[in-house]
Design a protein that fits this description.
alpha/beta, seven-stranded parallel β-sheet, Rossmann fold
């Protein structure tokens, strides 16, 4: 189907902006919604603003709700942006009669599952504010789907691509400076990620699929992935300094990082710490079999492409764009606009460089 009108929330963001460009290139009309105004943003404002969303959604053929919050936001902001924002966007879309409403969720809804590969049937077991908000947002989607809406839900793993910063900026910086890079324990846990281009392809698949296929919940992730040590070492090898991944004693290092997190001296949050100590990967069989989803990039492909982008920006002397709006309202305070395109403030971890 061509010449659709598709509303994309969080359209100045990493996922939203790439998706909007892909949709336009494929002949769709895009109505871009984001808190941050810009030349491509048709509706500048907060996704919790029902009046704004009614205007954006009027006569639309589909909406893709990408806007969200970061796990590092204050708890009240996470709940408001993720839960209230989802209720406003999805509810307004269904009431407006939008034929297809795509909700971008997260595998965070599973919490810290010990069953791998984790399938979509695994219960939602949130372990922190962020995963609880994502689970609550899915409950809103479930209710609307039960009422007859065609409401695909995608659960991506952490996705990487040009523009991605966060934790990865620390890895890239240390690699570029010719430093070793630490991992908890031996680094032999298998952590599955996802290339941004493959996530965009998955969104296109649910937009194009027949309603009876699209109207389901799908894990979206890389098909090929190895260990965290292998992925980090690939970046160090690409840097060309001959540096290595350095194992840290697991329990003492974990205890130290948890203490630093409580003191707000480290950006590494609790759920991420737990994820780094156990295998974390999901089944993508349902997406493969029903949507024809076949990811083209492995973990290493995605992380090396992101590193190449980061190096090019550094070579050009450009500061990586901070474009991914998570639609926090202006009154929400100083975290408004902090995104996954921003490098983490390393805190006391920056001082640890001297040991590597």
């Amino acid at each position: 189907m061509v010449n659709r009108t598709v509303v994309v929330t969080g359209a100045a963001g990493m996922l939203g902006s790439h998706l909007a460009r892909r949709l336009r290139a494929d002949g769709d009309q895009v109505r871009a919604v984001d808190l941050r105004p810009g030349p491509d943003i048709a509706f500048a404002g907060d996704v919790r603003d029902a009046t704004l969303m009614r205007s954006a959604l009027a006569g639309a053929d589909a909406v893709v709700h990408c806007a969200s919050a970061l796990p590092s936001y204050p708890a009240a902001q996470i709940r408001s942006i993720v839960v209230d924002g989802t209720r406003t966007v999805l509810g307004t879309a269904v009431r407006a009669g939008v034929p297809r409403v795509v909700h971008i969720s997260s595998t965070a809804v599973y919490g810290l599952p010990r069953v791998v590969p984790t399938t979509e049937e695994h219960p939602r077991e949130p372990v922190d504010t962020y995963s609880a908000a994502k689970a609550a947002a899915e409950e809103i989607a479930d209710e609307l789907r039960a009422g007859g809406a065609c409401l695909p839900v995608l659960r991506p793993k952490t996705f990487l691509g040009p523009g991605r910063m966060g934790l990865f900026a620390m890895l890239f910086e240390w690699a570029e400076e010719g430093r070793h890079f630490p991992v908890l324990g031996r680094g032999d846990v298998r952590i599955q990620m996802l290339a941004l281009a493959d996530l965009v392809a998955a969104v296109r698949a649910v937009l194009d699929a027949p309603p009876e296929v699209a109207n389901d919940t799908y894990n979206i992730a890389a098909a090929e992935f190895g260990t965290l040590r292998e992925d980090f070492q690939a970046v160090l090898d690409a840097a060309g300094h001959g540096r290595r991944v350095v194992p840290l004693p697991g329990r003492p290092a974990l205890a130290a990082l948890r203490t630093l997190e409580r003191l707000r001296l480290s950006p590494v949050y609790g759920r991420l710490l737990s994820k780094l100590t156990a295998d974390s990967y999901v089944s993508i069989d349902r997406a493969r079999d029903r949507l024809g989803f076949h990811p083209l990039q492995s973990n290493q492909d995605a992380i090396l492409d992101t590193y190449a982008w980061w190096r090019e920006q550094r070579r050009l002397g450009d500061r990586p764009e901070r474009e991914e709006s998570h639609n926090a309202a202006h009154q929400d305070g100083p975290t408004t606009g902090r995104t996954s395109r921003d490098p983490w403030k390393q805190g006391v971890l920056a001082a640890a460089k001297i040991f590597f």
